[in-house]
Each structure stands twice: as structure tokens, then as C-alpha cells.
Amino acid sequence: MAYDAEAYIHELDRQAVNALNKFPQFIKLIEAYQASYDEKTAKIEFLSSAVRLGKDQMPEIYNLLPPICEKLGIEVPELYYIKSKQMNAATGGSTQPYIYVTSSLVNKLSAELLSSVLAHECGHIACKHYLYHSIAVQLIDGIDNSSFGRNITIRKYLSPALVKAFLYWDRCSELSADRAAVLCDGTAEHMIDALLWIHGYGKNVDREAFLKQAIDFNAFVKESKINGTLEQMMIQKESHPRLSNRVYECYEWSRSD
After folding, report:
1. Which residues lie closer than 8 Å to 87 by C-beta, 6 or more apart?
2. What is the DSSP secondary structure assignment for residue 2, as one 8-state letter?
3. What is the side-by-side order of every strand in the sheet holding 98-102?
4. Which pLDDT tens digits describe the chain residue by residue (257 residues)?
5. Strand blocks (E) in the chain
């Protein structure tokens, strides 16, 4: 039986979505824009420049995907391989979700860690993150540097406060996707190791020692309102939570009922 996304969506993710859903006209506008423009340009880009994986194309990577999708109760998305020195993976698409992985990620991660990364990306699909995530991606570099900034109808909705709200939700959504990976693995260890590798610490850093650091980080942030506020100020323009935060959340989720 597949896992129900409602059972593992992070409470901060849920709260942030509820806040953003108070702008229904803006959301409908973005949905139409994505379907008519972003999804089609992404399809052209990947089909023309990347390698689509399948049973006949790098099957050792592709075959990691279907069992994950079965566990999370989603259709198997298209999986693309792109050449890049960055260790990265991402999910996109609304009506037809897709995932891409970079050559550096594939070359450096073991199969079990790569499987965790794919489970994280499938978690985004299962939680239906793609629409709001695509908005956040556009806004990371600010309104003026996004395609939204050139659309007068969309731009009128985008206050600096709403931009921050989307980036805040984007960070929260990563915690839900990490939980999906932990569920698929049955342990937090693989996802934590994958995160350490992606952040450049895979070869030299001891997982247990870093986990203690992550626990200390969480305790320090929660020690006072000032500490928590400072931490939020430092990351307000970032799309992902900090490494220690994600490691701590994976660990706590794996220990919960």
C-alpha cells in the first residue's frame, strides 16, 4: 500500500500553503501561465539538450525510480540526465511532472544514496509542490529578474512580502520531501548521507558527529526568540533550509511514530 502524502507533509509546509492559498486569483493566473509557457519551454529544453532515461537508456539509474513511485503512489515521471559539475536534482512540471539529475550527482553518489535523492524529488510530486515551487524558483533572484516581472498582470500581485512568503514555503516544502525519502528508505541515514555529499562533505565528515552538531543547532535556535528570529532573517532569501536543519528534521522524523 502506498504512503499517503497527507501523513508526512511537514506542519510548516501545511501552514505556509494555507497562507498562500488566500490568494486564489493569483494562483489561477500562475497555473494558466505555467501550462501555456513554462512547461512547454522546459519540455523543449530537456528533449533537445538532456538525455531521457528509461529501460533502454542508463537503466541502472532509471530502474531506481519505479519502486519509489509505487511506494509514494504516483505515476513514474520522466527522468532526465544532464551534464553538470554541480551535484543536483530537481523536479518540475505541473500536468506532466519530470525529474532531472546531474552527471556529477550520478557519478559521486552510490545507488542507495541516489535512490534517496530520487525519493526526495518524488516526494515533491506526491505532495503536489510543483506549482508553488515553480513560482519560488522564479522569484529567488527577485521580481525584476524573473519572467513574472515582465508580465504586468502577474507583477501587480507580487509584493516583496509575498515573494518572501513563497520562499519561506519553498524551504518548508523541502522538509516534507525529505520525510518522503526517509519513509522510502526506512531510515534517516541515507538521506542524511546524501545531503552531506551534496553539500560537499561526503568523504570527510562523520555522520554521527554532524548529527550531534545539528541537534546543538536546533537547541540553540530554539533557546530564545532572538536566536530564532536571527536565523530566519539569515535565510529569508534562500530556497532551501540550512544543512543542519534538514539533518535534524530527518533524524527527528525517523524517530517519530
Report:
1. 102, 104, 105, 108, 109, 197, 198
2. P
3. 51-53, 78-82, 98-102, 89-92
4. 899 999 999 999 999 888 888 888 877 877 777 776 778 888 899 999 999 999 999 999 999 999 999 999 999 999 999 999 999 999 988 778 999 999 999 999 999 999 999 999 999 999 999 878 877 777 776 777 776 767 777 777 777 887 888 888 999 999 999 999 999 999 999 999 999 999 999 888 999 999 999 999 999 999 999 999 999 999 988 889 999 999 999 999 999 98
5. 51-53, 78-82, 89-92, 98-102
